[in-house]
Task: structure prediction
Amino acid sequence: MNVRDSEHIVAELKDEYKLTDDISKADLILINTCSVREKPVHKLFSEIGAFNKVRKNGSKIGVCGCTASHLGEEIFNKAPFVDFVLGARNVSKISEAVKTPKFISTDINYDESEFAFGEFRGSPYKAFVNIMIGCDKKCSYCIVPQTRGKEISIPAEIILNEASKAVQNGAKEIFLLGQNVNNYGKFFSSRHEKMDFSDLLVKISEIKGVERIRFTSPHPLHMDDKFLDIFTSNPKICKSMHMPLQSGSTKVLRDMRRGYDKEWFLNRALRLRKMCPEVSISTDIIVAYPTESEDDFKDTMEVLNEVKFEQIFSFKFSPRPLTAAENLPLIDNEIASKRLEILQSRHNEILDEIMKNQVGKIFDVYFEELRANGEVAGRSFSNFLVSVKGSEDLLGKILPVRIEKASRMVLYGKITA
Ligand code: 5AD
Ligand code: SF4
Result:
């Protein structure tokens, strides 16, 4: 979502500024920030300190995104050389921000859901399209509802228009974004035709030229049968699903206010595997949530062993301000690190096995990225990263590749046609 926010920022400024990789030449330096865990917040201040040292006279520095939302004025206090602070969900005010001394806007109730952003995309192949803003969940550990505000769906006409335009400009893949995408359509800021996420997926798939649809993040709670059916049967929807587990323990899930339990998660994940054998499932897991006992952690390991995720994003619990879990007593850091290590090393074993099993298969790969050593890489329909020897002629093409070798993160192969 931050990548898309950054694209929106560039789009709004592109008549006045050109992009540069050289900070010392920049008239405007923007940093877009995350605040989900504590570490990126510390990093913000070291990074802008470093920018401040190398920037040219008269240039401006702006801090955008979720940390801007939650720290607000504090950013000016800690880093007085910052020129403006622009919160997530206030992105459309960027043109005003760059012109106004010490501009600050961090209103999490600001409604940008129908704002017509200008056109800019970092990739010509894959188009990120926001389908909602904010999040209405109240996960006990999560700061996002306090930085991105209430959930509002973007009207389908705007989304479909944007997707059609991206396809006309050459993108074959539409990547739908939201904190809670399968809750799409619950609330619009003005009157709109009723539509849920499954309906939206079908509409996107009907756009001529769309060859692949991806989305993130769906919430396991809202993975109803209709959604799983459409996911499985629609030939344009890429067969990779993100299912943020967070914890495998029903007790911890209750403490986290996730709204589902271990059984529901396993039921959905295993049903999905059965309906759609080629699916790859990724997840987010938090270890050492303050109420997590050794037995609770074992439950998480059990789910990991049953679902055998193709990819996990795993984190130690990080206490965040403005959240219900902020003041809970922390689990000893050594224990937390140990749990994270156990989880990640078991996942690596599972992953090595999964990757090995792909050798010999043929995947359609959408080539998007030039790598070192004359390699070109792209994603299979089920989201494996596949690399072949080749040149930039391959970029933007979808071609069948026979897998010959596997490493933990990348499959290597040859184009078969
Ligand atoms: N501590 C650790 N991880 C967190 N996440 C969100 N909040 C926290 C926190 N306080 C993780 C969740 C979420 C992902 C984007 O970040 O797993 O799904
Ligand atoms: Fe945070 Fe929960 Fe919303 Fe995801 S669903 S953004 S974890 S509050």
Observations:
- The pocket of iron/sulfur cluster (ligand 2) is lined by residues 135, 137, 139, 142, 144-145, 179-180, 219 (CB under 6 Å).
